[in-house]
Amino acid sequence: MSRLVTNELDLARELGSDQGMFVLFYSSWCFFSAMFLPVFESYAERSPGNFCRVDLEYMPGAAEEYAIEVTPTIIFFKNGKTERRLDGEPEIGLDENKLVKFIHSVSVPVKT
User: Which of 27, 36, 79, 106 is most buried by its number of CB atoms within 10 A?
Assistant: First the structure.
């Protein structure tokens, strides 16, 4: 299971990973986030040190800081910097195929 991050200090620690971190920004009230969360969690179980999640209800400022306009959105960070991002599509969200392609697009070995 991915780690739920609920404050800026913990998020900064997670983002500092030199191995890379997939961060799911989502909203628990969002239908598309609720549908995608189990998919994200299934990949997080395969590589738990590389996945965390931020519920924007706990950290509303993160939406502005990371320019999250649609939930769910995944940003891949390495050494504290954004390397790639996968934004959800309005009224569609994200799916497993998009996640797998995104994982393969970065240099982190995750079993898919």
Answer: 36
pLDDT tens for residues 49-95? 899 999 999 999 999 999 999 999 999 999 999 999 999 999 999 99
3-22 pLDDT tens trace: 999 999 999 999 988 889 99
DSSP codes, 25-42: EE-TT-HHHHHHHHHHHH
Helical ranges in the chain per DSSP H: 8-15, 31-44, 61-65, 96-104
Give the pair of three-digit tokens for residue 64.
């502005």
Q: Which domains does the chain have, with CATH numbers?
A: 3-104 (3.40.30.10)
